[in-house]
Amino acid sequence: MESTAKSFNVRSTSFPSKSHPNLARVQECLHVFKAWEASPSKKAQFVTSLAHLKDLYISINAFLQLPLSQQALCGKERLVGQLMDDFVCLMDVCGMVKDSLLHMKEQYEALRSMLRRGDSGLEASICAYHCSRKRMKKDMAKCLSLLRSVEKHVCSSNDNLDVVDQVLKDVRAAAVSILTFLSSIISGRKASQSIFSKFRTLGSKSQNEKGIHDGASDIEKADVAILSLYGHSSKAVKEVDARDAQKQMEAVDLKLRETEVELEDFFRCIFSDA
Fold first, then answer.
1. Of the residues 56, 77, 139, 178, which has the fewest C-beta atoms closer than 10 A?
2. Looking at residue 189, what DSSP letter applies?
3. pLDDT in tens, 178-225
4. Which domain holds residue 166?
5. Tell me, what DSSP letter sits at residue 190?
6. Chain centroid to CA 193
7. Which helix (H) or strand (E) holds 251?
8. pLDDT at position 85 over 70
9. How many structural domains does the chain have?
10. How many CB atoms lie within 10 A of CB 269?
11. DSSP codes of every residue in 52-107
């Protein structure tokens, strides 16, 4: 398939020029997002990418308000219905991811407080954390399943698309890519190859997989550090082990807080457009 940039040249005769400011803004946001996707350091820029995704949704909303954009969707009941289904899936995924981030933050705070004070019941708390992580992984598996359903819709569309269809396809692909990456990080598993990589518009598979592995490693390290304390009372935990666990949780907690803020902004953005 040709690159997304080239595909924007295929448009209906009634649609405004590709220099239209609303369309240009959408293309600019897509370009910024794809630059993040192709970057080998995508993990370090992940929080920023959520802000880019929010900007993309703001720009596509303005684009779809154009009268000719609305005309282009007339008579495409199947596409509109599919878009609504995908929209609901993305909102469900955002909700589950938000809940998981909040729950993980709360558990980190409780465990860190317990380690600082030397409270009893550390084993029970670690066991509860482990059970919570298992439930979280199941929730993220549901998220990935929902995202795959959206991905199928995106990949099933043909090559001969007008501007509106192509833009909607690219925007959904961007949302799927970001939320798949985030769900995979939370669950501690590698995400599948980026949907954009399948379109051959992005960087190499090895770069994408390396970024995903690096992104997931922080939570995995925290899991290992926490579970290594199991079998000891709070007072019996070695100081070096307690410090290591706290250090790992603090590192993850900082990223969780930053991610939660950007995800909340994105969630409000798409919810306000519902």
1. 77
2. S
3. 999 889 888 875 544 444 443 333 333 334 434 433 444 688 888 888
4. 4-272
5. P
6. 14
7. helix 239-272
8. yes
9. 1
10. 16
11. HHHHHHHHHHHHHTSHHHHHHHTT-HHHHHHHHHHHHHHHHHHHHHHHHHHHHHHH
